[in-house]
């Protein structure tokens, strides 16, 4: 167990519970902090008030003492109900030690931390490191010089199976005050004190500790309508291990009995009337008294946005005291040989004292508040981009002056060298003057007349913009498939960011499959002594013995071991080490990064076996997939597996080695669920493999004659949680209907008559908080819940999805699933299961995102639990999950020409290794508005706005989210046009970098998540929103704007060669019916599905050679596969489709569309440039944008 940071108080949306509770911990988990409130007793784990609603995100660099003023925040309607303060009991927690970033609150009350009993105290010796990797490592070790005590590095081969060319849940406090901004995504807020709370990771009786902090900035997508507090307690029976086992033991037969305050920003456009208030406070809301220590912070347009959504999480505030930080800083020093302290290393009790923190030495109680963004600052011009490293900060300049080193010294790479200030001009000249202030306008700024130039879609996929860095830094930069920023040119100030009217944020795909990954094993992982940044290609070496951190600018010593390069087997070249030559690396972590021994991989399957499930036929597909992939499940010799089935009762299966066949145990008392034989329900996969196979072969037929129509999903999940708590792992839930019995039962909330409504779309949020609270308990015990929903009717996915969102799980949805009647969905399930069961997985993971001083993170999006300001808790991490982060500029960046972002993912591999995957991204800083637009990444901007709009849809309304998306286009183009000269009012001009912005936003408005006026099932809409929050950018863009190709005339002229295969490259087509012809065949790539539309008059040779049928009439309605025909056109078509499938983890299903096919409607709804009854065409949308700009 560990002690976690204090978390900010959360609020319930309307109907989620009574007043805000206090948190508590069992005796021994937390020490009582002086001057804290008295303990309160929580009599039940699943009380509605057990978890508060959501976090506050820190808005500025504020240090204050405990205050008595409490925040009277508004209630909000949320989509996924924001994650609560929850320490989670994680054994895998990065460093709390040095966490005093600009957004932290310091309290002068020291909190003692209890030590973790099973913490490893041994360290990896250099003699072990010199022998290569551990025996159970899944990569090759590089031999080293005999007897040398140096680390090794390897580049492990990755199994073939896909070239992934790419990269949870949001929480925040509502704004207080009247919003008067015209920008669609901007607001202002006053920081006010509010309560913080802390909760123990587990246990039912807890004690309280509260402390005061500052409220977050609230952005435009965070409108919070006032809601009423409703008592809504969900009580479940406690667990009594002494009670008798109410089960039926069956040995042989497999049968079972029947923001803020005011004032428009100085940078806002005044040419149009104000947009509707998107962050307003009702007049009846009580006023808030501002603490005298807190400074007023102006609205941070996009950069200061904090969304108010259950599935996006702003960074909670720290509650650690100054004394604690000092002690924890010493703890961190003991982990790094580069530290100069000689204090003994204490037993660390949480991963926040292992992985890292903020800037403990550069921020103190005397830190001054952030300058108001509304005040335009006089700033120095940005340094040339070639000047890679800023001068030492004032705190360091008088310490140890760097020894001047000539650039020609072969021992120092120019891109890592720190240059004296006098050499800046010479360096800039030698690097070719890479400033954006070119005499010739860059292509990304070329004006595009959107209403005149209709063919703006490129012929191939849109590449990520390349940051304007010198060639050395550009080669070393992180791949945009893993780490991407919405702006590749970072504005110097928040005021400049406000002027651009574009959001600043990151899109991450941190655990994606890589074909080549440097894996480093070393007894010392070199990190900054101050901010705990991992050494990376963008640090600067002052000399061979000292390096300067590129995030906080502290000068650190180079450890002796780091002087040796395992690749070249040379000494004295630290700048050539693999850590400094690769922006993406993975470290084998020592026992210092463990709080308990690595647990085995544990997989538990919870299966719906009601009549509805048996009729759907999914059990046959699931059991067959498990039998085929049982030996491929990630893990080692300790891997464990278990099964639970449920209908109106819950059935467990004893698979203990030594039994002649599996034993079913039935628990019928679902109101007081318990484990009949806890020690025999999760078994070793290898020891009990034959029994497991027997069960999988029998399961599809065991419930064939069942008449049970009820579903006790809640009790089954409660049992699964009890079973998985000791070790953690992954729970896979298969559900086919609305839960109807026991805890967590749900009722239908969908009105089919409102599916096409153009007005209010209701019930986007959960109906109960049972699933959220259960998920948080699972997260605390390092257990993720993955949901497979295979339903033919409404199943309230908005409520069920919470079990995956808050536990870092994933969601799979198969509407109208039936094994026989819907073969396309059955095939998709089969392919998804193959990937799901065999893909890489990480357990007990935490992820921290660091950035250059002056930048701050305030909101996260994805499936996770937010543990502290920049720390995400991921019970499981998988290579198909993406995340998004919103950022703001708290301090001027005029003293630096580069900023860096670093994400560190600490996880346990399925083989039991503790690993750290690190990605580092470097971007230039610019001082002009045109440079900001030149570096805009339009796809990243759209994906971040999609995440923000999902939050707004639930916290406010779908109509507000749609309006905000439109206003985002209006504001950004109006701001750009206001800077350009000689523009006619009749023209709608965009920079080349943003020419696709209106098209992508229109596509987003027509996507299932946000469309109106078109019949859309509520579960379909919610699932689309879930995908928006958890998909990597490259997959999300295919959902938003599919790719359309004409494939009946493929040739060998425009081709590429991939693995001895010739792949045609047809040009992209506009998503418009005008591009379709009855004589052609068109393939639409929507990400998860391929539509192959065949025209009525399509060439008969194509139909015969590619589809395998003599004519158009003979092509079947439900064709999902292309036959292998020995013909050039068939080989080209199959090669192209296979190439598209290989570019993503989940294999899309192919669906052939004819004019009379019911799926034709779905195909034509993706032609987003055409007009529909309820939506503009693309040209009409442009005219509407132009009209709003000219208002």
UniProtKB/TrEMBL annotation:
Q: What is this protein called?
A: SC24B protein
Domain Sec23/Sec24 trunk: from-to ranges: 598-837
Report the coiled-coil segments: none
Ranges for the Zinc finger Sec23/Sec24-type domain?
Answer: 525-561
> Membrane spanning segments where?
none
Q: Where in the cell is it found?
A: Cytoplasm, Cytosol; Cytoplasmic vesicle, COPII-coated vesicle membrane; Endoplasmic reticulum membrane
Q: Where is the Gelsolin-like domain?
A: 1064-1137
GO MF assignments: SNARE binding; zinc ion binding
Composition bias (Low complexity) maps to 262-291, 310-320, 335-345, 364-375
Q: Could you mention a single GO BP entry for this protein? A: COPII-coated vesicle cargo loading
What organism does the record attribute this protein to? Answer: Polioptila caerulea (Blue-grey gnatcatcher)
Keywords carried by this UniProt record: Cytoplasm, Cytoplasmic vesicle, Endoplasmic reticulum, ER-Golgi transport, Membrane, Metal-binding, Protein transport, Transport, Zinc
Predominant place of localization: cytoplasm
Pfam families (UniProt xref): Gelsolin (PF00626), Sec23_BS (PF08033), Sec23_helical (PF04815), Sec23_trunk (PF04811), zf-Sec23_Sec24 (PF04810)
The family note in this entry says: Belongs to the SEC23/SEC24 family. SEC24 subfamily.
Bias regions of kind Polar residues — which residues? Answer: 211-253
